[in-house]
């Protein structure tokens, strides 16, 4: 019985071995299975080897590897897949194996490779060549120290420019210095610093004695810029005798650019400074202005003079009307002491203004800006004009009134192309004309 049982176990064991052997052969056959490509995409099993020269991709929708024969005429592509280079695990292993093999170089090959490596060694000659090409750190430090990269203050720049001015006679350098200083003194503190460094005497007055027209012109511009809206510098200019110097430049110099800059500088000193205005009158400033208007040679100069005097008259008017200003009584006393309008009347100022007005009207009736300046000047002094001058002015203003009415109507008709700015400007000029005409009509009626 036991013998029969043992024989049965032996037969079962033999059967199991036969089955395992068959399975191993089948698996081995599967491992050696080669993928057979066609013209269509086919799924490649993990156990299959992919021959070279195929088109291989991973289908992003299924995650499976697919392959097919290369087709040069194939043009259709789909965004659902991404192509990858053909390879499989066996090729990767073979590639790594080949790389490891290539790393095993012979002794002769290593020696040959070492010969081709560039040496870091340099000869003394090569080192000297490089040293000459580049400066040392100490040399660079010294050079940067000389440059002084620390930013300079405006006060330092003004001082430096004035020092340079003392040591040069070159016209172009002097003009550059004057231009730089003029730019700096536009700022309030810089103008005060220029005064503290005696800039009027050392720079401005010195250059006004130059025979070079450009230097004189730029020096006058520097003076005018320094005194603009700066009471401290205005007072200093007055104390330094600038008004007399400027009146002399205006009266004696024949260059109109010098005259123009002299008026600019005078304007900066006189505005909102009644004591300077009184000094201007005492130095025959109004007589010099009247002479320039009588010459009738340069309309630009004449209009500047007329505009400046009109601004000074308006200053006096505003001070009288506004009693809430600081030091009102003292300001009023000083302006009354100047008494500009009465001084103008003695110089027949209305006559001169009328001549300028008639010239502007005859030269260019479309010069609205110049006409406006003349109309404003007439309004400021028309109560000082005699009957003859008043009549001449009124006749011209009546012509202007008709013209501006026409311009307003023309502008108003073109609704599609109407320019509100121009329309309002013409209306403003028409109002000035009416104001003058109404005053003279009232004056004649009152006198009769």
TrEMBL record:
GO molecular function: adenyl-nucleotide exchange factor activity
Ligase among keywords: no
Source species: Ignelater luminosus
A biological process from GO: protein transport
Cited SUPFAM superfamilies: ARM repeat (SSF48371)
Matches recorded under Gene3D superfamilies: Leucine-rich Repeat Variant
Family from the record: Belongs to the SIL1 family.
Extent of the signal sequence: 1-17
Name of this chain's protein: Nucleotide exchange factor SIL1
């Amino acid at each position: 019985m036991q013998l029969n049982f043992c024989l049965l176990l032996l037969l079962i064991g033999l059967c199991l071995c036969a089955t395992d052997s068959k399975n191993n052969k089948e698996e081995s056959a599967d491992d050696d299975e080669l993928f057979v490509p066609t013209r269509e995409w086919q799924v490649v099993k993990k156990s299959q080897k992919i021959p070279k020269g195929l088109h291989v991709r991973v289908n992003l929708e299924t995650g499976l590897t697919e392959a097919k024969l290369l087709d040069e005429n194939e043009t259709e592509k789909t965004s659902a897949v991404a192509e990858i280079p053909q390879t499989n695990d066996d090729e990767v292993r073979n590639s790594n194996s080949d790389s490891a093999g290539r790393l095993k170089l012979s002794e002769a090959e290593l020696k040959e490779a070492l010969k081709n490596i560039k040496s870091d060694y340099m000869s003394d000659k090569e080192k000297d060549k490089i040293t000459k090409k580049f400066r040392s750190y100490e040399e660079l430090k010294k050079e940067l120290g000389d440059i002084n990269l620390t930013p300079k203050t405006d006060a330092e720049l003004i001082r430096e420019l004035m020092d340079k001015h003392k040591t040069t006679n070159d016209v172009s350098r002097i003009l550059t210095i004057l231009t730089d200083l003029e730019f700096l003194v536009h700022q309030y503190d810089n103008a005060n610093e220029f005064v503290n460094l005696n800039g009027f005497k050392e720079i401005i007055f010195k250059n006004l004695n130059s025979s070079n027209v450009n230097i004189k012109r730029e020096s006058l511009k520097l003076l005018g810029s320094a005194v603009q809206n700066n009471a401290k510098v205005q007072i200093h200019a007055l104390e330094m005798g600038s008004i007399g110097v400027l009146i002399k430049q205006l009266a004696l110099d024949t260059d109109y650019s010098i005259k123009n800059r002299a008026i600019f500088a005078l304007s900066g000193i006189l505005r909102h400074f009644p004591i300077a205005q009184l000094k201007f009158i005492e130095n025959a400033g109004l007589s010099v202005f009247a002479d320039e208007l009588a010459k009738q040679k340069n309309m630009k100069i004449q209009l500047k003079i007329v505009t400046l005097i009109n601004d000074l008259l308006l200053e006096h008017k505003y001070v009288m009307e506004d009693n809430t200003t600081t030091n009102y009584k003292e300001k009023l006393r000083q302006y009354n002491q100047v008494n500009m309008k009465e001084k103008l009347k003695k110089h027949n100022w209305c006559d001169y203004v009328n001549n300028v007005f008639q010239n502007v009207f005859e030269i260019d009736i479309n010069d609205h800006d110049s006409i406006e300046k003349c109309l404003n000047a007439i309004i400021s002094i028309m109560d000082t004009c005699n009957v003859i001058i008043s009549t001449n002015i009124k006749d011209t203003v009546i012509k202007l009134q008709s013209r501006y009415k026409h311009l307003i109507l023309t502008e108003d008709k073109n609704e599609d192309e109407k320019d509100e700015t121009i329309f309002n400007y013409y209306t403003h000029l028409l109002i000035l004309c009416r104001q003058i005409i109404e005053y003279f009509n009232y004056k004649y009626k009152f006198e009769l």
